[in-house]
Specification:
With 131 residues, the protein is of the alpha/beta class. It has a single domain, classed as Aminopeptidase (3-Layer(aba) Sandwich), CATH 3.40.630. 41% of the residues lie in helices and 16% in strands. Strands 1-4-2-3 form a four-stranded mixed beta sheet. Helix 2 packs antiparallel against helix 4 and helix 3 crosses helix 4. It is globular. It starts with 9 loop residues before the first helix and ends with a helix.
Length: 131
């Protein structure tokens, strides 16, 4: 169970519940992988889009699958409580967070990659195109 499964803050739950796209951002310990951002959640299309966008921008990212640690695959996870019942969970390791905090250009590239993937997903979602 992730730390966000039992999350129960009324204002956050209300905001998430009325949203079609939900992305939870968490920090994780490096473990033995200090450079890989783990991207999970039940929204596999958006998850995979974020993984691809980060990789194209020079970052290491891996899709987390159900059953893996910090996969964000529980239906009760805050990221999966939006109106589509599927969202994305970013697990950013300490090593990456330290790099981003010390390098504004990398921070901008990292954030822009994620934002771009979300924007493209939103465009497709609104157009009714297949995901």
């Amino acid at each position: 169970m992730s730390c966000t499964s039992p999350f129960d803050e009324p204002i956050a739950n209300g905001l998430v519940g009325s949203s079609s796209i939900v992305v939870a951002v968490h920090g994780r310990t490096d473990r033995d992988d200090p450079l890989t951002s783990w991207i999970g959640g039940l929204d596999t299309s958006l998850r995979d889009g974020i993984v691809e966008a980060l990789r194209l921008n020079g970052f290491v990212a891996a899709a987390r699958m159900k059953g893996e640690a910090l996969a964000g695959a529980s239906a009760g996870n805050i990221c999966n409580r939006g109106n589509r019942q599927a969202g994305v969970q970013l697990e950013i390791p300490r090593g990456v967070r330290d790099i981003l905090m010390s390098d504004a250009e990398k921070m901008k590239r990292y954030a822009s990659a994620i934002r771009g993937a979300i924007d493209e997903f939103d465009r497709v979602l609104l157009s009714g195109e297949g995901l």
